[in-house]
Amino acid sequence: MSDEPAPPSDAPGPRRARRPEARKLDPERSCRLLLEAAMEEFAAKGFAGARVQDIADRAGLNKQLIAYHFGGKEGLWNELSRLWVHQEETFNQPDTPLEEVLVRHLHQALDDPRGSRLNAWAGLTGAGPEVEREDLSDMERRKEAGEIGEDLDPGAVLLLLMGAVALPVVTPHTVRSVLGMDPRSSEFREFYTEQLRRIVRRLG
């Protein structure tokens, strides 16, 4: 124990590094952290089961920032939906063949299964903000171009393709039961990608 006298109370003491969670975050980074945390919580628990406090804790931020930046939990959900639509637009360009669009969605789902799991929760629980009706104009255009057979309904085809993408993520046990493959393996990825390409070609 040192005999050195303590410094007077008004004397500046040694500066201590601030804890990471105490550092002031810029709004852009705060929003990014909250959206990432919300995606994790929604995918794990669904919209109804995800708690604002848990989202904030996962992000390492005050829950009041959720209301400030997004207006609440529903605002987070809506922003994630908006970001997904924006990403989807990069997958689907007018000159991109339907089989390639499907494969891009498949690989996205296999690389990051949270979106498919989130949608599964929404469907099973019926909880979540209202969604707008799907725009079928692109599928109708593809039918006119011959990518979809004349006797096939564009909406029904879209549902079929959505299910084909989501199934390996939402019900991986089905893949193991039917194909004897691990849906997380490169073997399945390669096999299923090629099979989906062939199936889509047959649609025309």
UniProtKB/TrEMBL annotation:
Residues 1-25 are annotated as: Disordered. Residues 51-70 bind DNA. Residues 28-88 form the HTH tetR-type domain. Residues 1-11 have a biased composition (Pro residues). Keywords: DNA-binding, Transcription, Transcription regulation. InterPro entries: Homeodomain-like_sf, HTH-type_TetR-like_transc_reg, HTH_TetR, Tet_transcr_reg_TetR-rel_C_sf. It comes from the Bacteria. PANTHER family: HTH-TYPE TRANSCRIPTIONAL REGULATOR BETI (PTHR30055:SF234), HTH-TYPE TRANSCRIPTIONAL REGULATOR RUTR (PTHR30055). This is TetR/AcrR family transcriptional regulator.
